[in-house]
Amino acid sequence: MKRFFFAFMAAISFSIASAQPASDASVILAKLDLDNVIFMIPQIDFLEADFDDAGDYLSPTGRILEDIFGNQTSPFLVYSNRNFNVAIRSATANFSYVGSGTSNNVMPCSVLQYNLATNGTGGVNATPSMWNSLSTTAAPLITGGTFGPAKPFSVKMRAIPGWSYTGGDYLLSVILTATQL
């Protein structure tokens, strides 16, 4: 009886195992090709200061440049998938002059000074002092900014032209560069 019972159990086990549907497995290899990406968005790209009375020229701290809404800071957002640095420089050694004056109209870029007003990048303020004169050589503004989306910072600009320059409009392009580490 025991033999019959074991033979019967073996037959049932074999038939159950044989009745299972056949299966197979395949592997899909997924590849993502990621490039290092960084971009910076300035919300405001035009700042100005009017020197229209003696008090403006006499001020030892000069005039803070403002956007068309009266804001004194120029905000930026950095998007980067790696840590980054930010530098600042002037595009040219001198301001471009638009006006009727024919002398004393060559103003150096160093008349314009910058200040890192806010820094939400996770990096370090790399400016040597509170206000720094602009030059054509890139100067560190932020070092070690942390990777991620929408890392904010803002810059203030001020002008101290003194009494040496003829009246008119003086224009200068300021370049901020974000570079991945």
Written account of the structure:
The chain is mainly β. The chain has one domain: Immunoglobulin-like, CATH 2.60.40. The chain has helices spanning about 1-20, 55-60; strands spanning about 40, 65, 75-80, 85-90, 95-100, 110-120, 125, 130-135, 140-145, 150-160, 170, 175-180. The strands form three sheets. Strands 1, 2, 3, 6, 8 and 10 form a six-stranded antiparallel beta sheet that branches. Strands 7-9-4-12 form a four-stranded antiparallel beta sheet, with no helix packed on it. A two-stranded antiparallel ribbon has the order 5-11. The chain is elongated and about 95 Å long. The relative contact order is 0.24.
Short description:
Helix content is 13%, strand content 36%. The protein is mainly beta and 181 residues long.
| Biggest beta sheet summary | 6 strands, antiparallel
Task: Give the helix tally.
Answer: 2
Which class in CATH terms?
Mainly Beta
Output mean pLDDT.
Answer: 89
Can you tell me the number of structural domains?
1
Strand content: 35-45%
The tally of strands reads: 12
The string of secondary-structure elements, in order, is HEHEEEEEEEEEEE
**Which regions contain 5 or more consecutive residues with pLDDT less than 50?**
none
Rg over C-alpha atoms, rounded to the nearest angstrom: 33 Å
> Which second-level CATH architecture applies?
Sandwich
Structural class: mainly beta
For the record, give the distance between the C-alpha atoms at the N and C termini, rounded to a whole number: 80 Å
Shape: elongated
What is the helix fraction of residues, given as a range?
Answer: 10-25%
CATH topology grouping: Immunoglobulin-like
